[in-house]
Design brief:
alpha+beta, 53% helix, eleven-stranded mixed beta sheet
Length: 342
Amino acid sequence: MLFMLAVALLGPLIARACAVVIGLPLRATGPAGVLAAANSRTNARRLASAITPIVLAVAFSSTLVFLHTSEDRATGHQQNAGMLADHVVTAPGGGGLPADTAARAAALPGVTAAVPVGHTSVLALVGSGSTRELRSDPAQVTSGDLTPVQDLRVRGGSLAALRPGTVAVDRGLAEAAGVRLGDRMDLRLPDGSRATPQVIAVYSRGLGFGEITLPAADLAAHRTAPAPTELLVRGIDPGLSALGGQAADPAGWAGWAGSQSLDRRVGAWANNVMAAVLGGFAALAAANTLAMATLVPMAKALTGESPYIPPLLYGSLAAAAVALTLAATALPTRHAPRRRTA
């Protein structure tokens, strides 16, 4: 933010310096380049009025876009570092696995652990005082001990203690919610029911695996599809395809799990659209500024007078702008109450 403010305030000086540097190669292109370089250096203030909105738009757009690219990169790192399973069994078509899949996998020779896992979202009460609010967080649901198949980098407690009435949370979420080991955490389950499980573990790889880990028994009656969506298997593959699912290595699982985060994909799409809109407005503002700064001197040079704008025409343009603004704000406002009462 300080950098953007500095660019906005020092725009003329930066534009003059850029005109000097860029003007060196321009002079080698001939008379047109010499004139362009001289014009940019002489009218640095006019050039700055076009450069500044572009710099600000690029800064805001980059923040929106790079936020999700950084998050996706960190998610991949956590998944690659924390996945201990040798194989991941998923149901064809992304549905749920049969209830006995874990038991049948555990009975196969060479399998040392088989843990079913599902994914959902729950609401967690975060903040303090008047700023407390419900925040949607991704959660993984399991009916087994995740320790042999996932390394969530536990900072306190133990995932082996996960049982009905308990919860394991990411360290960042625990700090946001103001809870510690042994505290009760205020949650809203997928169907809106309230739950206050006890925190039995705090870990730091929630970005890659889910910020909340809950026992499957606590969510069985609160989800429309309670069946696990994947089975994490530790050991050799003696024929996992016979379990009725698709077996993949952990690298394939990481990509598949990332594609399942609908909230993250929607957020990335919205940020990209907003960045594109900001870039478009910045381009229009820069083009308009340069065009007006060029046309006004041209008109003055041709006529010897300042540009003349008829008052009636100017008033018509202003009235059209006001009418468009009122229509864009008043019509949705009048329509919203009707939809609520319908």
